Amino acid sequence: xxxxxxxxxxxxxxxxxxxxxxxxxxxxxxxxxxxxxxxxxxxxxxxxxxxxxxxxxxxxxxxxxxxxxxxxxxxxxxxxxxxxxxxxxxxxxxxxxxxxxxxxxxxxxxxxxxxxxxxxxxxxxxxxxxxxxxxxxxxxxxxxxxxxxxxxxxxxxxxxxxxxxxxxxxxxxxxxxxxxxxxxxxxxxxxxxxxxxxxxxxxxxxxxxxxxxxxxxxxxxxxxxxxxxxxxxxxxxxxxxx
Length: 242
Prior knowledge:
By secondary structure, this protein is of the alpha/beta class. The chain has helices spanning 33-41, 57-65, 85-100, 119-131, 192-196, 221-240; strands spanning 7-12, 27-28, 31-32, 49-53, 106-109, 136-142, 153-155, 161-163, 181-191, 206-210. The two termini are 35 Å apart.
């Protein structure tokens, strides 16, 4: 618990990923992504219950080995690649409240495809949600200025190029750009009322927890290579300071 708030952690991990087949089972540093999420959960005392939401038997087995419960399987209707996070979280919340006979005040979504996660990231997100009385708190990373919306272009079917946003025509130097941020998947902390009453993972009062440093979000084979490289670099740095 966090104060008097009961926390349910949900790790969404369907088996039908397309970009990287069964990516939730792919290893970083020899450890499957789903198991890395379980290791972090074990180091966050505020979490009362942690479950995996999956439709895949092997993912469920690996998750359980890593300390994540798998008391239900996600139905096929919630296993497609266009299913919203809200649907998955509400399903998990309803199932777990029914099975456990309790009410969970906070749902914490931890996507296994963000292996840069640390227990400190999760604790900070939960604390920000409660201390600020937000409806939700999301972890974000600052977007590199090269990928800023005002520097993006579109290409028509005939090859004609134009600005994604007409205001981009006025950008000469990056110093003109206001910082923008993107979701990094490390943690989403959402109140029960936000999910069930506002029917959203982003409520009327949603705050940002900015994560510093490189954050990997696994969508491609190259992302996996980068994540393994970053881990090797961190391990080498740790050995050098020992």
